[in-house]
Amino acid sequence: MNDEREIALGGGGPGCRKRDPIVVARKVTRSFGGINAVDVDYLEVPRHKITALIGPNGAGKTTLFNLLTGFDTPDSGEWEYDGSPLAKVAAYKVARMGMVRTFQLTKVMGKLTVMENMRLGATNQPGESLAKALFKGIWGAREKEVTAQAEVLLAKFKLDTMRDEYAASLSGGQRKLLEMARALMVRPRLVMLDEPMAGVNPALTQSLLDHIKNLKAEGMTVLFVEHDMHMVRHIADWVVVMAEGRIVAEGPPSTVMKDQAVIDAYLGAHHDVDLGDSTGFERLEEELAHDDESVVGTAGEGLIGHTITELHGAGEPGPATVHAEEKKP
Amino acid sequence: MDFGNILINAFGELISPTTAAYALAALGLAVHFGYSGLLNFGQAGFMAVGAYGYAISTLTFGAPLPVAVLVALVSSVVFAIVLGIPTLRLRADYLAIVTIAAAEIVRYIVTTNGLTEVTGSANGLAAFEGSFYALNPFPQGVYNIGPLGMSERNLWIRVVAWTIVVLACLTVWLLMRSPWGRVLKGIREDENAVRALGKNVYAYKMQALVIGGILGSFAGIIFTLPRGAVQPANYATELTFFLYTCLLLGGMATVLGPVIGAMIFWVVLSLTQGLLYGAIEIGAITFLSNVQAGQLRYILVGVALMLLMVFRPQGVLGNKKELAFA
Amino acid sequence: MIEITSSASVEIRLARPTVEVYTLITQPMPARIGGMLLLALGVFASVLLGAPTAHSSPPSAVSVTQRASQVTPAPAPAESAAPENFTDRVSGVLRGVDGPLGGVTVTVSGNGFDGETTSADNGFWQIGVPEQGTYEVLLDENSLPEGVELAEGQANPRTVTFAGTSNATTLFLFGEGIVSQSTSFWDDLAERAVAGFSFGLLLALSAVGLSLIFGTTGLTNFAHGEMVTAGAVLTFAFAAVGMPAPVAIVLAVLGGGLLGYVQDAGLWKPLRRRGTGLVPMMIVSIGLALALRYIIQFNFGGATQQLPGSQSTAISFGSVSISQNNLTSLAVSLVVILGVGFLLLRTRIGKATRAVSDNPALAAASGIDVDAVIRIVWVAGGMLAALGGILWAYYRPGVSYNMGQQILLLIFAGVVLGGLGTVFGALIGSVLVGLFVEISTLWLQADLKYVGALLIMILVLLFRPQGILGRRERIG
Predict the structure, then answer these.
(1) How far apart are CA C361 and CA C355, in angstroms?
(2) Which residues of C touch A66 (CB under 8 A)?
(3) Which of B326, C168, C223, C233 is 20 to 30 Å from the Cα of C181, by its Cα?
């Protein structure tokens, strides 16, 4: 699963072409009250890779996410996903096409149980149409499949013990996990995570990073927003840097970190940004050094693959999942 | 003061067709507000559409009963769709203002003198219930339900009204345990999250609005049949707010809550009226007139609505953990 | 809109309890949750205490309570009424160009019943009838005073049908003045526009308060209509105990401020402390609206009363005429609104208010006492609503327990048109609503004039949900 070929065609730099893009955006702009929140000239997101979108606060990362996924309407511009134009396509249709996002402020349904949250994510549910909803005979079978799929995912994310709890009782990090797991119920091809690490305690951060790597291993493309560029160093294949609505740099993480434009963007716009909380990250780096093992399953198997047995190297379980039992179906 | 009589009256309220109508309309609100988070403040409008749809098609077009009911239901569906198109994309508070405005528009339109021929303007319409009572299978006579004696007409309307309530409860229960209901509950909490999962939130909200509206429309018909008259003054905004009181009494995200809420609402109103009037009659209360005693009860309704919302928003039956608006 | 004026003796009798209620509610209360309970109890107690003087209700109150009891399946009081004291009645007010017409004979016949009466000095007449139904009403034209004639096209005799209420009213119009005149379209338009501007500005008074409250607390206050009513009812009450009109108005506006303060301190502040959500708060405001409305009705009765000086002469500017009251109202609201605008833009407290409205958390962090600002906003909102209510009472004209509810939706329409939470948007939106309501009567039936404004609000939301001056919000 390690595709080592070059991601970019003919060198990096802002707006460079990729060998196999899944998302292509051209001249996407959005302004709020005269301020250009997003002004992206050209952007390609490489397929089957983990791309990190980083930049200081207010750089327009979340707004770009909103625009790409149909949650906000740009002032101008066009973009396509897997060859189909997406401008003016409703958000829910974008999601159905396999481009599924999460939110910066975690959106789990606190008054539904964890399992109901998961079931909500599943697609092709006959019971979700009004005419068929009255008759359990019609949707009961699919409901069982959905539940089985959800159980596999919950086990993977170590949320299986919380199955019947109301999601409101989960910790912040568990909610992030649940939101990501629920997004996977849609069986996306492109997963867009908005600050998946925000507000998550360090122990869970590491398992979250692992989960993100697993997504790639299972054949998905990942685009995630991160505020802190050091978090992304080890999992991103490609890094796109935004500042003041524009893309100021992109390239492999090692190159981008040295890029003067990036340093300017961070230091210029955001003097207090923590460029390296060295102790915390060194530990994380060590643990991630052998992360090849954390990739489980194969690309063709898909998410529900019942041959998936367990996760290795997911690090120490988070405080709330201490009692989680290893599931070995 | 005749306590026996007061209790019998209260029991009468328990099974009265008005209570059934309130239960149905409040059940519609449960679908709107309790399950989907749609703050519909225009349920009185839906009831008016149902009542007038039925009465006008009977009187003006001479439609037979099934056609008249169908017209009433279709009108409420159309009303829901027309109302939903501009509002369902809006925030909850905008939706509230628009629905209350739409209900008032309906009321102004049926009140206007320009349409007296059709709507009877402020006087309303009467004498449209004949075809309903013509179907009455109960032979003439006096029927006793518990301590309560009633004519065959009163029995017939009660049987029909409560049968519809039971069927409606069953339908709503079936819907809400299904994946469809799950999507609605998801929308109630965070519609953007549901949208991000590939559900057409707008369509679901519209379906919920239509279903709750149909229940409101049925409620309007049941409300108006035993009176034999439909008048615009009965469908003012207070009606919607009384329905919210019923809904909150029983529990807003429950199926039986609205029914029990409506029963409590009317029994309590009847008891307080009986006791107050009785006390005035025997001279125990000298500082209230009967009219003021009536108004006092509605002051209590308002106070009850506030206290319920603040201290027990889940109602009698609800589960606070499931309550999206705690 | 047709309102029935009731006799003057009733007005005095009703006035006192209204005052008592408000003094009772305004007793200091702990600003905790218990405060709400106390408020509720206080309201209840004041209702009971305020009652003794309001023993019987005026005739037209019957119609209103009857309306309420239709919603209630209470036994119809008509059945138990003694034959000589019918609860169902046909009534009306005879008013000529120069004032009320007393001593005019009116007969009612139908359903095997005949009744005759003469109108009182205030022009009011009523005849009790045994049952609801259709009656023929005949006005004896010979009994009219010298020089007064029925207006052209006024049917006499005419038939009157009960509308399910216990009171059927009919109005006879007199004299030349009421006969519809033929004026040019542009004159009509100009006249409607001036009236609409006046109406819009009085709406704006209430709307600015509503919008400020929304902006600073997020609350959509459905009880705002009752704050409007309170202003008019208080003015009526103060005037009825003998105060001169200007004093009564000033006191009523202060009373409105007090009502705002008490609402905030006794109810909304504890709820905010509790972290109550906006939707529950909205529903609480509905409960409050219901309670306040019926408390006012309980003490004030269901009749429509007139404030002192409600009849005013018309002033003509060329072909456009406007009543003296409307002109005064226009000037007063303009001055007050400019004053509010100045305060918001130029003073410390105004700037603080706008800061809280923009971002409460940030404002609090930068040292602004958010609670104090909100308190001031409630007081100011209450005063503006009360003033709006007084002007509305002169505009309609008349004071009734549900007058605030009648324009609440128009106030909302103004606020929504302008953009929820934007003060100047509320001003512009309200003026537009006022103009639209009045100008639409050129084409629409007068009883449909509010429909147009509400429809416009819905249409604007369809195309520009954030309103004219509002901002779009970011998602996610």
Answers:
(1) 10
(2) 474-476
(3) C168
pLDDT of res. C175: 64
N-term to C-term CA, chain C: 48
CB contact under 8 A, A72 and C471: no
State which of C178, C213, C247 marks the end of a domain: C178
Same domain as C201, residue C278: yes
Torsion angle in degrees (nearest 10) through CA of B97, B101, B103, B108: 160
| Lowest-confidence segment of A129-133, C27-31, C377-381 by average pLDDT | C27-31
Residue C315 φ/ψ, nearest 5 degrees = -110, 135
| Closest CA of chain B from C316, distance in Å | 31
Distance from CA of C472 to the nearest CA of A (A): 8
The reported pTM is 0.78
Q: How far is A5 from chain C (nearest CA, A)?
A: 35
Query: Which residue in C has a C-alpha nearest to residue A33's C-alpha?
Result: C471
Confidence of residue C88 (pLDDT cuts 50, 70, 90): confident
Rounded distance between C-alpha atoms, residue A248 and residue A267, angstroms: 14
* Subunits adjacent to chain C (3 or more Cβ pairs under 8 Å): A, B
pLDDT, residue A313, reads: 36
Give exposure, B175-194, as e/b (b: 16+ Cβ within 10 Å): bbebbbbbbbbbbbbbbbbb
pLDDT, tens only, C242-283: 999 999 999 999 999 999 999 999 999 999 998 888 888 999
The count of CB pairs under 8 A between chains B and C is 199
What type of residue sits at position B120?
A: G
Are B294 and C74 an interchain contact pair (Cβ–Cβ within 8 Å)? Answer: yes
For residue C454, how many other CB atoms are within 10 A of its CB?
A: 25
Q: C2, exposed or middle or buried, with CB in 10 Å at 0-12, 13-18, 19+?
A: exposed
Tokens of B165: 């309530």
Instruction: Confirm or reject contact between B117 and chain C (CB < 8 A).
Output: no
Q: CB C57 to CB B104 under 8 A?
A: no
The pLDDT of residue C421 is 72
Digit-coded pLDDT (tens) for B57-89:
999 999 999 999 999 999 999 999 988 888 888
Residue A8, pLDDT > 80, answer no
* CATH T-level assignment (fold) for domain A21-109+184-321: Rossmann fold (3.40.50)
Residue C112 lies in a domain: yes
The burial class, CB within 10 Å (0-12 / 13-18 / 19+), for C13 is middle
Which residues in chain B have Cβ-Cβ distances shorter than 8 Å to A110?
189
Q: How many CB atoms lie within 10 A of CB B306?
A: 27
Read off the tokens for C460.
């604007």
pLDDT digits (tens, 9 = 90+) for B108-127: 999 988 888 888 888 889 88
Minimum distance, in Å, between the CA of residue A104 and any CA atom of chain C:
6
Residues paired with residue A250 on neighbouring β-strands, in sequence order: A240
What are C30's two structure tokens? 């702990």
Q: What is the DSSP string of C283-295?
A: HHHHHHHHHHHHH
Any idea which of A3-7, A162-166, C3-7, C186-190 has the lowest mean pLDDT? C3-7
Provide mean pLDDT across the span B289-318: 86
Residue B235 is given by DSSP the state: G
3-state secondary structure of A1: coil
| C290 & C370 share domain | yes
List of domains in chain B: 3-122+160-322 (1.10.3470)
Rounded Cα distance between B98 and C298, Å, is: 30
